Structures are given as structure tokens and as C-alpha cells.
Amino acid sequence: MARTHDILDRCAGLARTTFPEAGGACTAREVAVYLAHTGNGESLRALAGATGTHASTVLRAVRRVESRRDDPLVERLFGALAMAAEPANCPGTDDAPETPAEIPAESPANIPAQTAPRAPADIAAEGTARLPREELEREARRYLRRLCEPGAFLLVTPDATKGGIFCRANEHRKPIAMLAITVAVEFLREGWIRLARRGTASIRYTVTEDGRSYLKRLLAEDAMKRNAHPGFGEAQTPFQSQHQISGERLFMNPVSGAPETLKVNLAEEPLGWLARRKGADGQPFVSAMEIEAGARLRQDFEAAQIAPSVAQDWRRFLTPGGRNSGTPLGRAPGEGPQAARERVGQALSALGPGLSDVALRVCCFLEGLEACEHRMGWSARSGKVVLKIALQRLSEHYGLAIQRR
């Protein structure tokens, strides 16, 4: 059992070198079990006892990794990794060659440099040569931008040295870029692309969310280098801009009363996230008219001051007089936002029960769709459709749909 633990730990170290946990090919745990079984001859029961699982679980992991080896990019990663996992290449094992008797152990100067044992990580890194980080970032700026285009995918054949990137703009007739297989292997290792569809003679890869986020972070770094002083509302670090959706909103200036365009982060609201999603026809799932209707409802909700207070109101303590001394003479505290309250009530009455609930939770309280579905007792992925209907009714209530027609 101790020998099985040592082999499994050694294979796990090699697997983490080549297959990071964030990668889209195989997990390091599955690869470690596969190498210990196929490269070192460990039985399934011994591996099950070492990992604390059932033998059938180990067998499924081995079969899962074996099925992924049909992928040409994954097979390139397995090339030198399987060789490095052999007992003869791993120092410190029972099957490793012993030092000859004629070479004394106490004289390390007599040992030739080429016969000195090498670390398993060095063997794996030597077989699967990594690109320099600067070169990898340069290739990511060039090719990930192409893969992020609508309907784009990477087409790879088993014996080719390059893969073609196709997109929907030219109806996938001609590749818009040619990507080297070594760069594609690095993209797969980093988890920036994933297997989308396997054919008889080719395999398609598409960009992942990690790839989109990494490209956005690289582009933000370039923009910050060009503009050392970001403006108001802009991200201060590339990681902040990675989680932002830049947009513009039209606001009324309270001083001058004129409309003013300001930069905002659309990712702060669920509607901003939903505005990026597209349907099966490639069109946005929520139109700009419906987004404007949801923004109007939230503006009236904020002006009406209906939301519960989360902190102490210090205005009554900082002004002399009675409880209502902070309000204008002859006006009650609730009469200021009374018009906004009436507009919110009319909008919710026009929506009716059910639709008003989802509009109030998502647009006003900024509650996520999954949380809204859980609270309302709806099935999964049904809140998006109900919210779409509510925004359509809301746009008709505000007259946006009539103006559009």
C-alpha cells in the first residue's frame, strides 16, 4: 500500500505539471490514476484503496482519460508525460537502476553529470515544452480575439501542424486565422479552449469563459498602459475591468436639468448581464427598449424611497427641532417622493401578479434570476422567460413600444 501511495503521489505531481485543475482536458486526479495504472502497472483495487474510492470509480476515471486520448491536443500532452511516469525515469522507486558497485557513493565527483538523476517535473517540462509567458500572451491577444467572434471555433485534424479558426461572418467557408498546434496545446493546457464537437476526421474547439476573461484582462492592461489616468467609473486594475461591462446611461442633471451621459457598469444589475445573452437566432435576448423600461422602473423605485433602510437615518439628529424638522415647511416626510410612488404602483398594477413580482425583485431589488426562481418556486431557467414577458409589458406601459412602432 505504501508503494501505491508513493507512485500515486509521483504521478499526481506530473499530472499537475501538465494538466492544471482549471484545464478543460482532464483533471490532475484522473490523469494521476491513469498513469499509475497504465504506466506503473498498479491494479484498480490497489488504487481504489489508496484513493479511498471504489474500484469501479477508478475504472471509470481510467476509461474517461483513455477516451480523451483520441483528441490530438490531449495526445500531445500525454506524449512525454507517459514517458516521464515510467519507473525507470523516476528516481527513488524500487525499479530504478542502482548505482554500480565500482563507483563509490561517497565520491559524487566521480558520477558523470549526464547520469545524475533528474526530477520528474523536469522530465515532463522538457518533453512538453512550454511557451514563454510573453509569447503566450502575445498569441492570446491575437487568436483569442478571433475565437471570441460570433460562431467562431478552432478546427484541428490529427496529423496537421496548424488549425484553422472559422467564424460565422463568412459562413465558415474560409479560415480567418491559422493557429499552430503548439499554441493550441498551450491554450488547452490553460483552460482557454474546450472540446465542442468530435467528428470522424476533425475536432472543434470553442473558447471558454476563462479564455474570454483572460483576453479581457489583457486588453484592459493594454488600455491602462495607454491611459495612465482612468476616468470616473473606470476600473483601476485589470482584474476589476474583467468583471465589468462598460456602458453608457442617460441621466438628468439635478442642477442644470439637462440630460447627461455617464459611463456605468452594466454588470452591477441582472439586466446588464442578461443584455449580453443572445438567443438561438443570434439576436439579443432582451432588447434595448426592454432594458430602458427596466431602468425606468428602478429609477422610480429609488426616487420613491420604498426600499427598506439598512442604516440609521442621522438627518433627524443633525438638525435642530422636532422629528420632521428636516422636511420643508408644510410638507410631510412622505409627500416628496409621492409622485414616484404613484408611478411605481401604476407600473406594478399594469403588470399584474406574477410579472410584477419578478420585475420588482430583478429590476428594483437587483436579485438574481436563480434566487428569484428559488423564492417563487419556479422551475430552473424559467425566470428568464417570465422576466422577458414582464419587460415587454413594462415597455408598453411606458409607451416605449408605441414609440418604436
List the helices and strands and how they pair.
Elements: H1 2-18, H2 28-38, H3 44-51, H4 55-68, H5 72-84, H6 120-127, H7 133-147, E1 153-156, E2 162-166, E3 177-180, H8 181-190, E4 193-198, E5 203-207, H9 209-226, H10 238-242, E6 246-252, E7 259-265, H11 270-275, H12 288-304, H13 315-318, H14 338-351, H15 355-364, H16 369-376, H17 383-397, H18 400-404
Antiparallel strand pairs: 1-2, 1-5, 2-3, 4-5, 6-7
Helix pairs in contact: 1-2, 1-6, 2-4, 3-4, 5-6, 5-8, 7-9, 12-14, 12-15, 12-17, 14-15, 15-17
Describe what this molecule looks like in 3D:
The chain has 405 residues and is an alpha+beta fold. The strands form 2 sheets. Strands 3-2-1-5-4 form a 5-stranded antiparallel β-sheet. 49% of the residues lie in helices and 9% in strands. The termini are far apart. The chain contains 18 helices and 7 strands. The radius of gyration is 30 Å and the shape is elongated. Mean pLDDT is 75; it is low at 90-127 and 322-331. The longest helix has 18 residues, at 209-226. The protein has helices at 2-18, 28-38, 44-51, 55-68, 72-84, 120-127, 133-147, 181-190, 209-226, 238-242, 270-275, 288-304, 315-318, 338-351, 355-364, 369-376, 383-397, 400-404, and strands at residues 153-156, 162-166, 177-180, 193-198, 203-207, 246-252, 259-265.
